[in-house]
Every structure is written in C-alpha cells, then in structure tokens.
C-alpha cells in the first residue's frame, strides 16, 4: 500500500500545494433544455454561493478560489463580496463573461453582424474587467455561445474578423497584470458552426492578441474520440495553456463530475501536466471545475470532484519516470505502458487521507461534510427567494 | 428538366397523397439549456398553435394532421380543440406523452424505482389515451427522458423490468383500433445511460407488447456515423416501423429542419421507404416532423421542412429501379451508385411546383406564405399572455 | 489492502473458475492496411500458435481454450491438432469462419447476390462445422465482412433476405449440442453499409434461427459513445449473449489489448455480468479475446490482457451490492456511484497474486513469462517458413 | 435549367480553369487490412499508372497533373517518367514521401526515438526533393504514419520536438521555388496518439518552418462531426491552406470517391473556397484526389470524382452572393440558408456538359470513357507482372 513517503519530496510538495478553482454556478441549479430540477437549500445569491463553495475548501483544503459568472453573480457591491469571500477563507478567481442570455444576442455577441450589438457585447466584457478590479481577479475568462445553426446563416469568415476586432478591443483594456483566457467548444448551443470550435482557432486568436492571452481547455468540449492529453501537451509546448475547465462526459458537453466518465483519461491528462512540470503553482495553468450537478447534491458533488482531481494527480506523480523513459527508448511497448498502468492501478486514497490528516483535515472530506449537518442547516434557512440558476 | 410526366402514374399518385404530420410544439418557443429566445407572434395556447399549423397545410396541401404534446397542449375541452382543428382544415394526429417536467420525475418516470412515481407516470399515459379518445387520435407516442447520469446511479436491468411492466399496463388500456409507438434516443437528457437508447431496445419492448406496438425513428437520435436508412430497412422488414420524427442534426439531437444538415441522407431514407413500398397511405408509417426552430421563424420553417421531405420523396420516386437492380446484380458498383445519384442530382423543384399548381396551390408555398401577411397579423394580434414553449 | 478473504466464498469461486478463451490469430502477425510488421519467433503454423497460446494458460491458469480461424488454421489432420492442444494443456474453443479473403467474396459472402458464390460461402461454414466435429468444438462463430461501400451498390433488404436464408441453411447443419454465435460490427471493411452492423440486427437473425443462436459482442464494434454495458445487460436479459470478443479501442476497431483504452468501461461491463450472475461457468457466455498485437509482443500481450480481464472481474466482484441497492433505492446519486467507484478504485492486484499462488502459479504471470526464456527459444527455433498472419 | 450563360464571366473562367490533381496510387490496387482485391488491367508500374491517369485527363480536360508516391513510384529514370507524362498530356504534381512501410519505421519515422532511424526517414525526404528536381515538381507532400498505440508507449512531447527538428532539416533542403505541405490525420494507423492529428498541430509546425510550409486538408481525416469547411475558412484566413486531399467517408478514413458520402458537405467546402477567392489558379491551393477504389473500377472512379468536384464547384459559383449577404445582414436565417440551398439544389450537369463541349470534349466523360474500349485493351495487354498496390 502506498503512502505519502512513496512520493519524492518535490512530488509531495506539488501535491500538497495543488489548488482547484470552483465555479460559483455549480452551487446553483442547472439542467437540460428539458428540465431544471430544483433542490432544497440552493443558494439564492452570490453570497450564499460563496458560503457553499467555502465548505468545499474547508473540507478539502484545496479549493481556495471561486470563479464568478457575470451577470449571474452581479452584486451591487463587489468589494463587499470580496470581503465576504475572504471572511470565509476563499478569494475570487477568474471572472467569466456571459453574453448569451439577452435576446439581443440571438445571432451572436462578439461576432454579431449588428455593430451595435457587438459593441454591447464588448462593453459587457469591459464591465467584467471592472469586476476584476473590484474583486482582485487577474483573469478574464471568455467563452462565447456565438455560432450559427444553418449553412449560410452568416458568413463564417466575416464572423472571425469581427471576433478578432472585438477581442483586440477587450484585450487592450486589460492592465499589465491581467490576462484573458479564451475557451473553445466543439458545438452547443450553435448547431452548424461555432465561432471558436477548437484549440487551433483559440490559439490563433491568442497569438494575434499577445502574450497575456491563453487557451482554456474544457475537457467536455471536443469531438468524439479526441485525444485531449495530446492537446494539453501541445498547448503547454506552445506556452499557451491558461486554464482547465474540468468535468466529464459520455456524449456531448455533459458537464458531469470530473473523473466520473473516464478516470483513466483524467490520469493521462495529469500525466502530461506532471511531465511538463506544469503542476508548479507558478506554471500559469489554472485548474478549475466547470460542472453541472443536475441530479446529485451540489456541495458534495464538488467535494468529490476535487478529490477525483487529487487522486489522478497523485497517481500521475507516482509514475516512475525513469523506468518509463527507459522502456520508451528501448521500444518496449508493454513495459512502457505497464509503468503508466502501475501508477494508475495504485490505490492512492490512503496516501491522500494521510496528506489531509497532516494538514489537520478529516481524512475523508466527503464523509466529514455529510456528517457536518450543513445541508440540513441551509435547507432550513434558505426559505423563500429565487434559487440561483443559469438564468440568475 | 423533369416534370410530373416523368413519374409513372403510381409514383405520381404516391407523391400527391403523401402527408406529413406537424408537431404542435414546433410553433412554440424552444431553445437550448443556455437560452430560449422569444419571438413576436408566438402562440399562447394550443388553439393558436393549431391556427399556425393550419397555415402550413394551407400552403403545402400536405400537412393535414397536428400532433399534440400532453401536458403542453392540455386544454379544458379537447372536443372543442378537435372542432377547432377541423374548422381550420386539419385534424389531431398522434398524442405525445410528457413525463419529464415534474420534479417527481427527477429519477425517471416509467422506470422510476419509486413505485408511486412510476404509477403516476403510468396514469399520465392513461390520461393521454383519454385525450386520444376525445380528439380522435389513434396513436399514443411515447418518448421517455428516463435514464441515469452516473454509473451505478440505478440498476440498468431493474429499470428495464419496470419499463416492461409500465408499458404493458399502458398497452392494455389501448382499444383495438389504437396503437402505441415507442421512440428511442441515443442520449439526452440522461448522460450515462438512457433506458430506450436504440432501435433494438425499442423493438424488444414492442415485440413483448404485441402487434399494435411499433418503433418511432427520430432521425436525430443516433450515435455519430449510424446508417439510419439501414435501420429504416430493418424495421420495415420486421413490420415494426411506426413513425418517423423528421429533423436534422450535425452533432447531437440538434432538431434542425429536416434535410438541412444532410439532404443526401434524407434521400437515402426515402429511397428505402419507396423500395419497401411504405409510401402507400395504408403502410402504417407516419411521417412526422419534430423540430425546434430556435432561431428561424417557425411557420416558414415548417413549410420549408415539408417541402424538403417532398423533394427527397420525389427524387426517390425518380430512381430507375430496373436499371438499379440490373447494375446491382451485375456487380457494377459505379453504375449502381450512378443510378441513385442521377435521381438525387435531379432538380425536382419544378416538378413539385407543377404538382402544387394542379392541386390549386401556389407553386412556391414559402413565397406565398411570406406574401400573405400572416406573420404581421399574428404579431399584431398576439399581444400579452405567455408564449407557448416547452414548459407550457 | 484487499485480499482474497475480502471476497465472499461464492465470489471467490467465480473468480477462481473464470476462463478466457484465446484467439489463435493473436499469435500471428497483424497490422493495418498500411503495413504488417513482422517479428522474430512468430508461429508458422497452427501447431506453433497453440504452443504459444498454451504458454498464456501455463502462466495465468485461466486461458485453457484456443479459438481457431478457418482457413487460417486449416490443417490436414484436425484430430492431430486436437491431440496436440491437449498435450499442451489446452483445448480447441470456438471455430471462426472466414469468408472474406477470396476474390470471389468481393461483393459479399452469405449476402452475395451471386447465388453460386453465396453457396460457396455456405459450404465454407459447413466445412467449419466439420472442423467442430473433428476438434470437439461446440460453437460456430460467424463474423461477416459483408457490406457495401456506396449507396445503391446493392439492395440492403435483399441482402438481409439472402443472409436469412444462408444462416438458416448453416444452422440446420448444426447438431443439437452445437450452437452458432453471430457477431455484429459497426463498420469495416465495408464503408457505407454493413449487413450485420448492430446488436439489434444480430438479435433479429438469432431469434429467427432458434434457441441455439446467440449474439457475439465485440467490444470494439460500436459507434462512438455507445454504452456497451447497456447492450450486455439487454442481451443477458433476452438470454441471447453468446460470447464476448474482448479488446479495446480509442477510435474504430483498433483491436488493442482489452482494458488498455478504457479500463473503467471494462469494469462496468463486468459489473453487468456479475449483476446478472453470468460469470457462472454454465451461464453460456464465453469470454474471449480478439486482439491484434501489431506493435507489442504477442504472448505477453495476451497474458497482460487475461490479467486485465481478471482485475476488472475482481473489482466487479468486490462491489458492495447491498449498499449499492440501498443507495439506488434511496435516490442517493453520489452514494450509489460511490459504491461502484470504491470497488473500481481498489487495487486488486495483490488479491489476484494471492489467488495465483494458491493455484501454484507465479504471482506475476507477466514477469514469470518474461523470465522463462521462451521468447528467445522460439526466436532461435522458428527460422525459415512463412510467419502466420491474417492471410495464412 | 441553368446553362453556362448563367455564370458571370469571372465565375465561368474560374470553372473552366479549375484543375484537379490525380494520385498515381489510385490506379493501383488498394483495400483494407482484411483483403486487397485484384482487378484485371491494373498497372504494373508508374508508367502504366500515368497512362491511366492521362485517360482521366483526356475525358475530363481537368486533371493535367499526377502526384507520385515515393517509393511506390520509384523508377530508375525519373527524367524518362517526366517525358512519358508529357507525351501523354499530363505532368508530375506533388511528390508524396512514404516512410511507413519499412520494418525500421515500426515506432515512427520523423518522430522515432532512435536517431539512426529518424535520420533515415529524413534522408527519404531528401530523396523526394531530388525526385522533385528531376520531375519538375514544386511541392513535397508529407503525411506521416507516426504515432503510438498505447498510453505511455512513447513521450508525446519528445516526439513533437523530434518532429520539429526533422521537418526543419527537410525544409532547409528545399529550394526557394519549392514548398512543403504537411498533412494531418485524426487516427490510423496509430490508435492511441498520432503525431500530427489535427490542423492546429500542422499549422504550428508550418508556422515554425516558414512561409513555404502549408497545411494539407484531407477531407477524411477528422473526428466525427467536425465542420470541415470551417477549417478551410480558417486556414485560408491564415494563408496556410496548401492543398486538399479530396475523398469521402462515412466512418473513418474510408477514402471513398469525393462527393459520394456527403455531397452537401463538398458543396459547402467549395463555397468557402469561392468565398475566399481561392479558386483562382494562382491561389496556392492545390485540389487533389486521394482515394482508394477498393471495389469500383479505378479509371472511371477517378473520372466520376473529378466530375463530382466540378459539380460542387459550379454550384458554389452559382450562389447569389449579393442576396446571401443581404439576408445574412438582415438576420433572415431562412432566406440566407435558402440562397445557399437554391444553388445546391440546382442541377448543374447540363451546364458542365456545355462547358465540356465548348472545350471539344464529350459532354459525359464517364460514358465516353466506357465507350472507348480502353479497359478491355489494358485487360488484354497487362498480362503478367505484379499489379501495383500500396506495397509496390
């Protein structure tokens, strides 16, 4: 049975310091176009979302930042929200712009052929930069719903030119210590063409913008069969991997808990991260969750997800790199694959329990949270008001 | 240039008689989990939906039936709705049960492990059978959102047994001149396992139920790369193809206008229909649209879709069957494929214009509708009230 | 750390008795359309293939049968081959018919429009039944390359009728204690339509044939995203799952080692097997490998694959069924999923090492084989002659 | 019915001048890993391949160049081959390097961890550059089979660094009037990771090399559901689209005749080409076929393919660009899509027949070829020798 002492000091230190950013919206309701189910205790405002997120950090010790979605998390006083977060032991992470829920954006936001709507969408991003200033966030995260549903509906290339111009205006508004990260997505909500559908497109725009523009890789945003760890490797090689949106999928952008659909894939992704030494806190890569807990409880769903990332990371850190390289150079396919599988097949849960206990945390964060009575308390307290969801 | 006279009398008669059933819900608003855009003039109730559907029939002469969705189309007096339909020149088609929009159905309807919820879902279907009686409909159309999001969430096999029992209870309530059609879907809204995911599963349940249970093939409900016309052929061979839900897709269940994404595929499907002589009005196969006009106008979107099915049908009827068979038996791959492509590459729009003019219709239904001023009228008249959508 | 004693007696017994059938062809060369690489020591005839297969059984104690492919494994004296196998401690398993490597079969075998070629293909199957008689095999395994590359190339439905007739003739030639298993495949080598593309089609033919016709599920023969364990469950429910062809895939029918691409999927499949009590030796389900070791060494590749199936099985047997059912019935999504993941995340390698030692085997079969010097011996001995491959 | 006069003079000129490059290997045998079927009359050497290719040009008037594959098309005297081509009315096009059919390349060519094998692969490309010199070709086309079958088999990033270095050495050997085009492929023959799997990777390498390195887009080399015309648009925007390998697919890299699987997609690709004015002879984009006629006759298969590209091009040239732009800017989804569909639904075969007749060609190249007796002649003459295929 492996224990913490099986990790070399550097690996152990990387594992101890790993942090995972939480999305505020994971604590609100979500669903499909068919139905959004409601749950007792769901937050009614950003302050309550932060309170729930802080619970995840309290039990895992590994989730000290919360990402906001504007306008879903718009408040009158962002300074107060920042102070509230700090009082809960967390801080504000990336600011996500949302330019897809206004009737004006029916035909796009930063790519819209109507110049006045495009200007409105650009302004919405400048507002987000203001929120960054007020909350101490250093990253603007841009995901666009832009695209078209039918061939011919709009001109694909003209949309790229508009996007180019829109992003340049937004990038110009960033201060020197702020960055933009641009997310790509294979499809949905657009059904024929999406304006930033793949990492190549996102990278081209980032290259055009400058060094403080990087790519966001959402693990659910690829075509069937795509080798995601290859893209991770390639973006790291280009120095342009800005952040992960972790989740998992069986079919489309299912937004299930990370590691739930294909834990081996998650391990392979972390292996590329470790291989490129990108687990270092100063690597510039943000590890973030982006999930929808449509059916399962939200807080424990996030705790479980943080644990899944930690387990995949611990396994990746256990890979015997020397033995791996030797087998690779010898052309010994089975031995090389075997080195990787040995690490993957190891049960690292005891090792992580040990790590938590050293930090003064409960060895099993999920059990500890469930025993805490927090869920019953919020169910009792959060009566009335409108539950937060994707629309509010 | 082909004309009506290029069709033999039987083919011409089949084309003239072909009808396409319209979904009432296509006239309401729809969208994605990200946003449902609203549009001026959208119906507020089932009566207005029927009025809009009747416009599609008025201009195409080929859409005389409207399918209802219960409870979306629940009215106090179904008899009145039926009379209203008839006054507009259409009648009520299939009745679709909807057991996925109540919080009770979070973990399923006909497959739910909670017996009381399962009983409620069965009762909802019995109510639909009552609606059939009141409206003169002879078909109960069952599509279930049932499924699970995570491995282990529920027992796959136990869910099948519950489904088996639920369907049997519902089937037993049908009268002799009524049938049940069971739709399958690859995924969505369930993300790990869907309880009726493929034609094999649907067929197995229909076989267990009896001869008046048939399979519904929705053209958007398959895995990437699936050869849909093969399934059409196979279900026809088994005598179990009950209905089509026509639409088109690039990625998942996009519900775009039929023929918009892959018109050649639609032609190949119709070719199998013609090949099996299933275009005959008494073949037992219902041709129906099931689409979401998220961005485009709804009434002209439906008109265009009816026209697309007619064009694919006309092309399929133009296939030189004798030449095709001769080339096939001779093993002449290029010649055989060439016979099919000749029909597909033919521009049948003039032929269909001719057909419409013979029926006393405008040759171009879309242009005629757009010139009619109907859209402006409903935009002016339908002020106030709640626009119909998937939730109402 | 789990040990054998953590399994209840019945589970332990099932694990001890589990056997996996090996494909003779896995020991010959294979490759892609681009290149078949050769390897020193590759068998030159079926006798040498059996010798290699027997090594896999010697080290794992779990692979006592070898499946033959006719004509690849045709020998003058099948009785001698049978005796040879027994002398090596193994016996002959299923007989696979091969009707795709003769120029005559360019347009199909059992579905060929040319009656004389179809008759030849039927005779090839009757020959296989003779081989079954001579070798003591009780199962005829049918996988067909039949299909067409272009729309229109042949008539899809006529091909089904021919298939129906061909299979009936073959089935009629089986004795009462013999069965036929029919494999389906999504695509390849046919690129437009395959005549047995999915489990529904295979099942329909099996139902038409009779109770001794069952479906073969090859884990690499599905569309992207297909939930394979659902099909396993459904075929078990129908009493028609005859055999597995285990392998793994990232893209198409890659034929990689089972468990190499998605070990979690393999576990879920075994979970459905255990759930349906189909691990029992008398369940009628044959577990077989069907792999291509294009780059890795063949004998250790097979050993590794047997171990992978055993590990997935052990994990499936460790699932706490009572806790799982309780969580499922309570609608506790996270707890139910957690029960499954607990078993999956367990490192069962020590448990299996223990099991092997109790049987008098080396705890690590792969290491033991590699230390045995067998590979060096066959490389030295097998000089000259033509290496076995897919064509010989 | 449209005629040539419906095209404006510029469009007509572009259509008249369009040329499609033929692959020499399409005239040899090809197949799948299961079987390569042989055909009477198949060429035995590059001279005979050129003779067959010249027939395609003779009947279509649009295929004046033939691309070679080295070593498949290696001859002692390339000067003689060049003269032979010219005597047949064609010339040598791109030179394709082949570094995947030697046992040395089992673990890769330009990415191989063994430096001596990597050097050999680089030399093979320098040899191709010599062939370019001797034949007057100005383009080196690089497609690599490099990749790995199992996670861990080799280091993904180290392989990129080796690729980078290898390509740089090759690029340095090109003269100023020569270019390199780099093809990407989703998967096959590698099953876990391919070293140039997508356009993003190819583009990154081209950017690193310099302005005379461009991307090759093979229409069969993408993940399911990929919007290929979007990539066309994006590469044109980046000024890096070097060539097309046209073919079509239903599943993987099926290499069927272009336009056979999804003619609407081919039209959409050509629409982006026309939109970007990249049909101009000096646009730098080479239109090339890359197909495998496994079942159909090869020469007429190529003729048909050239015709399919011409038909898609003619339709794209018929798009009413002004009306399209107006509808797009007005947000009229149905009208914009309708403009595109009007062009697509037009039967352009008469127009192309007219074009051919003006050039002094038969209006139906396929019929004319079939009537020529060429096939019977080569079947009679080409007796003995080894038929050309992928291995020779």
From TrEMBL, chains A, B, C, D:
> Oxidoreductase among the record's keywords?
no
Q: Which InterPro entries match?
A: L-rhamnose_isomerase, Rhamnose_iso-rel, Xyl_isomerase-like_sf
UniProt entry keywords in alphabetical sequence: Isomerase, Manganese, Metal-binding
Q: A GO BP term, please?
A: rhamnose catabolic process
Entry EC no(s)? 5.3.1.14
The Swiss-Prot or TrEMBL record annotates one GO molecular function as: metal ion binding
Q: Which domain of life is it from?
A: Bacteria
UniProt protein name: L-rhamnose isomerase
Provenance organism: Propionibacterium acidifaciens F0233
Q: Which gene encodes it?
A: rhaI
């Amino acid at each position: 049975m492996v224990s913490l002492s099986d990790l070399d000091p550097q690996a152990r230190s990387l594992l101890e310091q790993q942090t995972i950013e939480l999305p505020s919206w994971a604590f609100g309701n979500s669903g499909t176009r068919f139905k959004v189910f409601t749950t007792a205790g769901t937050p009614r405002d950003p302050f309550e979302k932060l309170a729930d997120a802080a619970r995840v950090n309290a039990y895992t010790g590994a989730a000290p930042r919360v990402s906001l979605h504007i306008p879903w998390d718009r408040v009158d006083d962002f300074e107060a929200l920042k102070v509230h977060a700090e009082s809960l032991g967390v801080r504000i992470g990336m600011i996500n712009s949302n330019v897809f829920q206004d009737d004006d954006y029916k035909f796009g936001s930063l790519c819209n052929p109507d110049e006045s709507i495009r200007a409105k969408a650009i302004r919405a991003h400048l507002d987000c930069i203001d929120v960054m200033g007020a909350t101490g966030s250093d990253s603007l995260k841009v995901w666009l719903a832009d695209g078209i549903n039918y061939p011919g509906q709009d001109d694909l290339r003209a949309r790229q030119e508009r996007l180019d111009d829109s992003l340049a205006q937004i990038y110009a508004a960033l201060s020197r210590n702020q960055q933009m990260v641009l997310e790509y997505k294979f499809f949905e909500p657009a059904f024929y063409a999406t304006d930033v559908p793949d990492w190549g497109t996102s990278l081209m725009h980032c290259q055009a913008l400058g060094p403080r523009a990087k790519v966001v890789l959402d693990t659910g945003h690829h075509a069937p069969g795509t080798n995601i760890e290859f893209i991770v490797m390639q973006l790291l090689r280009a120095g342009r991997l800005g952040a992960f949106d972790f989740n998992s999928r069986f079919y489309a952008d299912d937004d299930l808990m990370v590691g739930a659909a294909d834990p081996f894939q998650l391990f392979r992704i972390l292996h590329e991260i470790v291989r490129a030494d990108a687990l270092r806190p100063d690597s510039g890569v943000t590890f973030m969750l982006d999930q929808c807990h449509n059916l399962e409880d939200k807080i424990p769903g996030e705790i479980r997800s943080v644990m899944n990332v930690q387990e995949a990371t611990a396994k990746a850190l256990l890979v015997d790199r020397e033995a791996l390289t030797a087998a690779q150079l010898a052309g010994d396919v089975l031995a090389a694959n075997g080195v990787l599988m040995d690490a993957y097949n190891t049960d690292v849960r005891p090792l992580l329990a040990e790590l938590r206990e050293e930090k003064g945390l409960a060895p099993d964060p999920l059990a500890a949270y469930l025993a805490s009575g927090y869920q019953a308390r919020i169910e009792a307290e959060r009566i009335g008001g409108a539950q937060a969801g994707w629309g509010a």
